[in-house]
Every structure is written in structure tokens, then in C-alpha cells.
Inverse folding.
């Protein structure tokens, strides 16, 4: 945590290629009883957030935990970047700006940028309120624009999109800014400010302002993370030996302590929590609901939604076919048996198409389908020869390393997108 007490989070999602065993791909819906993935909980279209490293070694900078945004966003350590609390006479001054629905607005730096590989859509927030703490956050947002929009070349900065969400509960402003980096990584910066005191709040500060005991809160937070994990992976509790390892990583006291609180638009205290994963990346961050507060938010808002289908440009400049090129009418994902896929291969597919892409891996090996629609679809493909009944099909024995990894990747993607 920085000297000025900023709450901030930087998330790096790294694909490590874990696989699940014995999963049924054809039917079933997974209902999250806690919170959806971060982007979805904000109502944003979720863009890709994994790195497919083809089982390669993960570098230290890619597995960076929650960090101080003052280190990530600014190299300026001068005293003029420090936020100081106003004196009481200033806090109670009649000249203080009134709260409004325009507390946070789109910054003039917001832009859409065309690059060779993608169209970057950047909705940057501007805190439209007087105060040193607000000014400091606005300066850091300006540095984001300089880093990812202004200082770029024809191939872009790698950051495909920026958006934001904000709420005002009493005097407390919560501001969340997700940054989407191509198909590989997503980062979040979270700021919580007390506008009356004109200061950025630490986790301890926020709980004190809400008169919540820190130990009690972290127990509630752990319970919420437990519930979220179970909603995602509970079906594997008795079938996968790795379940207990991942579960214990999720609810470990160190991991719970790193989760960052925020207040959502419903006046609920939640947390940005790291939920370890059974497949895909080592972990993903989720918004979990911790406890309801008295009263509701006076104001809240968000940027226009950016759509990952617009951001992803799957056709390279030479026109050659890449993984996930759906121009082949015979396949949803032509190379899913020979290359590792990523979110960029799945973004733009409908929920039904994602499920077809998943079952396509099975169909290549002659699996039949109980669902008549799936069976009819694959019967129409020239390459398909259904010979194995579903109950007799052993995917772990028949799939190669790419197919096993891609099977689990699509399942995880469907969960993150709310498709199952």
C-alpha cells in the first residue's frame, strides 16, 4: 500500500495450461452464486484475459500479485504527488462542490485508436470534483493515457481497451478501471476515496469509516471467496485430486488479506478477490459480495461498454489463416487439435458456437451425441464419422495435449462469459 493510502490492484492473468479430467462437455449450466467475473459484473463485455504459453515457464513479472498503483502508474515520487488531508475548515466549507450524477465523466483523453492488429477503445474517467485526492487520481489516469494511447506506434501499445465503473456511498467514492491487454492479460486499478476528508483510503481506513471490525470482515470475505470457488469448481470436489490444493490456495489467510474492498452500486461491500483456478490461468480475479451496508449509493455510473468483438482483429495483415479462423465452413476452430487457443479465438462466437467448438474436439474422434441438434450438425460435416457412443468415449485417453488444454480452456471461457 502506498504512502498516500491508495487502494489499487493490478491483475496479470497467465495461462499455465492446467487441465480437468472426466468432464462432460455436452450439457449442463453452471450458475455462479457469488459474483460473475470482474468485467461481467460491471456489465462490460469481457475480453480475453489469458496467456496461452503452450505449457511454458511463467515469468515472475507475469505472476505479479496485487500491487500499488502508485508504483505501476507513476514513477513520480516527488512531494507534489502526495495527497494531504484538508483541514476541517475546508472540509466544512460551503464552497465545497455538491455531489452529483456527474461526479465521474468521460475524460477528454478518451479515444478510439486504429492499429495494425486491433482497434483500441479507451474510455478514461475524470473525477469531476474538487480536491487534492481527486486531482492525484486524475493525474494517474492521465499517465495511463500517455502510456497506452499517446505513446504508441502503428502496432499499438498492447492495451486494447480501458473502461471504468464508479459509485458514491455517502462521502466514499469507489472507482474501478479495467485495462484489457490483447488476448493475454487484464489489469485493474481500484481507487477508494473519502471526498469529505479529501484522502485516498486504505483497506483499514475504509473499514474504519464503515465501522466494521477488520477481523470480522475478513472472515466474511473468506466465506464469500469460499462460496465463489465452490460455485465455479464444486462439481470436481470428489473427482479431481487437485481440488483441495486449489481450494486451500483460495481461502488462505494471505490471499484473503490481499483482497481489496469496494462499494458497489447497490450499497454492498464487496471485494476484488483472487480465486485460484482448476484450469486455464493460475487464478482469476472475481468480484465477491461480502456484506450489505445500511443505505444505498446516492450516485453511480460507468463508461460506455466496449465490445471485445470490435477489439479483436483475427485476420493478420498477410491474410494467412490463424488459429480460430472461422472462415472454414467445416470447422468452428480448425486448429484446435494442433495449437493452443486463446480468448481471441473465442471472442465473437455466440454461446452456441462456443459449445459447438467444444464438441468439435470430441467429434473429430468419432464421438456420437445424445443431443439431436449436435448430432445433425456434425453429420453435415464431410470429415465426421460418428462411431463411439457417449458413454464409451474416454476423452483423456483419446485427446492429445492440445485438445485436452483447449477443452478445458473453452469450458473456463464459457463459465467466465456466463454461458454455463
Amino acid at each position: 500500500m502506498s504512502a498516500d493510502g491508495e487502494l489499487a490492484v493490478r491483475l496479470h492473468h497467465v495461462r499455465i495450461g492446467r487441465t480437468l479430467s472426466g468432464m462432460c462437455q455436452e450439457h449442463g449450466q453452471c450458475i455462479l452464486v457469488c459474483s460473475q467475473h470482474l468485467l461481467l459484473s460491471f456489465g462490460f463485455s469481457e475480453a480475453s484475459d489469458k496467456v496461452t504459453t503452450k505449457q511454458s515457464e511463467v515469468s515472475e513479472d507475469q505472476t505479479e500479485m496485487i500491487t500499488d498503483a502508485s508504483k505501476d502508474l507513476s514513477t513520480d515520487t516527488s512531494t507534489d504527488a502526495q495527497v494531504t488531508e484538508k483541514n476541517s475548515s475546508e472540509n466544512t466549507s460551503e464552497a465545497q462542490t455538491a455531489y452529483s450524477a456527474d461526479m465521474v465523466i468521460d475524460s477528454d483523453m478518451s479515444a478510439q485508436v486504429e492499429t495494425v492488429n486491433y482497434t483500441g477503445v479507451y474510455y478514461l474517467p475524470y473525477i469531476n470534483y474538487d480536491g487534492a485526492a481527486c486531482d492525484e487520481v486524475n493525474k494517474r489516469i492521465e499517465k495511463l493515457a500517455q502510456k497506452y494511447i499517446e505513446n504508441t506506434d502503428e502496432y499499438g501499445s498492447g492495451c486494447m481497451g480501458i473502461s471504468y465503473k464508479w459509485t458514491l456511498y455517502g462521502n466514499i467514492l469507489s472507482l474501478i478501471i479495467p485495462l484489457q491487454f490483447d488476448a493475454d492479460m487484464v489489469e485493474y486499478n481500484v481507487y477508494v476515496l473519502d471526498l469529505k476528508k479529501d484522502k485516498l483510503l486504505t483497506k483499514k481506513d475504509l473499514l474504519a469509516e464503515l465501522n466494521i471490525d477488520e477481523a470480522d470482515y475478513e472472515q466474511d470475505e473468506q466465506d464469500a471467496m469460499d462460496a465463489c470457488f465452490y460455485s465455479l469448481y464444486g462439481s470436481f470436489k470428489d473427482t479431481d485430486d487437485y481440488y483441495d490444493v486449489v481450494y486451500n490456495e483460495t481461502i488462505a489467510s494471505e490471499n484473503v488479506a490481499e483482497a481489496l474492498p469496494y462499494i458497489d452500486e447497490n450499497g454492498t461491500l464487496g471485494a476484488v478477490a483472487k480465486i485460484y483456478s482448476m484450469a486455464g490461468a493460475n487464478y482469476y480475479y472475481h468480484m465477491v459480495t461480502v456484506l450489505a451496508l445500511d443505505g444505498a449509493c446516492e450516485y453511480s455510473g460507468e463508461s460506455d461498454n466496449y465490445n471485445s468483438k470490435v477489439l479483436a482483429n483475427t485476420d493478420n495483415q498477410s491474410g494467412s489463416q490463424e488459429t480460430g479462423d472461422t472462415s472454414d465452413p467445416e470447422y468452428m476452430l480448425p486448429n484446435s487439435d494442433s495449437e493452443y487457443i486463446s480468448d481471441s479465438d473465442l471472442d465473437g462466437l455466440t454461446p452456441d458456437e462456443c459449445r459447438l467448438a467444444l464438441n468439435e474436439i470430441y467429434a473429430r474422434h468419432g464421438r456420437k451425441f445424445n443431443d439431436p441438434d449436435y448430432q445433425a450438425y456434425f453429420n453435415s460435416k464431410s470429415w465426421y464419422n460418428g462411431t463411439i457412443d457417449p458413454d464409451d468415449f474416454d476423452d483423456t485417453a483419446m485427446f492429445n495435449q492440445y485438445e485436452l488444454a483447449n477443452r478445458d480452456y473453452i469450458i473456463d471461457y464459457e463459465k467466465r462469459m456466463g454461458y454455463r
Remarks:
- Residues 214-233 form the longest helix (20 residues).
- Residues 26 and 42 are 29 Å apart (CA to CA).
- Residues 1-6, 8-94, 306-327 have pLDDT under 50 and may be disordered.
